[in-house]
Amino acid sequence: MHEAAKPIPVKYLHLAPDDPLPEVPNPLPSRVVVIVEAEGSAQWQAATSDWLVASGCLYMMAWGLGCSSWDDSVDWALLGAFRFEDIPPERFVMTSWHENETLDDVFFFCKQCALHDSVNLAQTVLLHIAKQPAEQRIMDVYAQA
């Protein structure tokens, strides 16, 4: 099942490395662009990946510092969430990393290609991992992609 042509709402979320993770009261099926401009500990990355899977992330795209490790980390979090057994199609998380691309390119990919085979995605989350937030800059780049 693919999304209709209507735009998917976009949400910006800033996390500083090693920050506590927010609660997930009502997970929504989401595509998430992880924008890594500062790296946290390996334990925090693993916990954040678990949080992404629990939050309803069904398509994760990583960009920035060490982005390929996020691809692996979210894959492991998904496997762990299902105790390394079969993953139902509606819970499968597609992951990708975009090491040699611009943020514009990743956002274009997100808008045009990041669809789930089994679920309509309800939102796009721009997860900005950085020491300081930059919501306006990130949202502007996303809007122009």
Any overview of this molecule?
- By secondary structure, this protein is an alpha/beta fold.
- The protein has one domain (10-15, 29-144): Aldehyde Dehydrogenase, Chain A, domain 2.
- The protein has 4 helices and 5 strands, in the order ββαβαβαβα.
- The protein has helices at residues 42-54, 67-81, 103-113, 135-144; strands at 10-15, 30-36, 57-64, 94-97, 123-129.
- The chain has a 5-stranded parallel β-sheet with strand order 1-5-2-3-4, sandwiched between helices.
- β2 (30-36), α1 (42-54) and β3 form a beta-alpha-beta unit.
- α1 (42-54) crosses α2 (67-81).
- The two termini are 24 Å apart.
- The relative contact order is 0.27.
- The mean pLDDT is 94.
Topology:
Layout: E1 10-15, E2 30-36, H1 42-54, E3 57-64, H2 67-81, E4 94-97, H3 103-113, E5 123-129, H4 135-144
Helix pairs in contact: 1-2
Distance between the termini: 24 Å
Task: Indicate how many domains the architecture comprises.
Answer: 1
Give the strand content: 15-25%
State the CATH topology: Aldehyde Dehydrogenase, Chain A, domain 2
What's the count of strands? 5
Structural class by secondary-structure content: alpha/beta
Helix/strand order, N-terminal first:
EEHEHEHEH
| Relative helix content | 25-40%
For the largest sheet, list the strands in their spatial order.
Answer: 1-5-2-3-4
**Largest beta-sheet details:** 5 strands, parallel
**Number of helix segments?**
4
What is the C-alpha radius of gyration, as a whole number of Å? Answer: 14 Å
Which regions contain 5 or more consecutive residues with pLDDT less than 50? none
CATH domain class name: Alpha Beta
Kindly state the mean pLDDT as a whole number? 94
Second CATH tier, the architecture: 3-Layer(aba) Sandwich
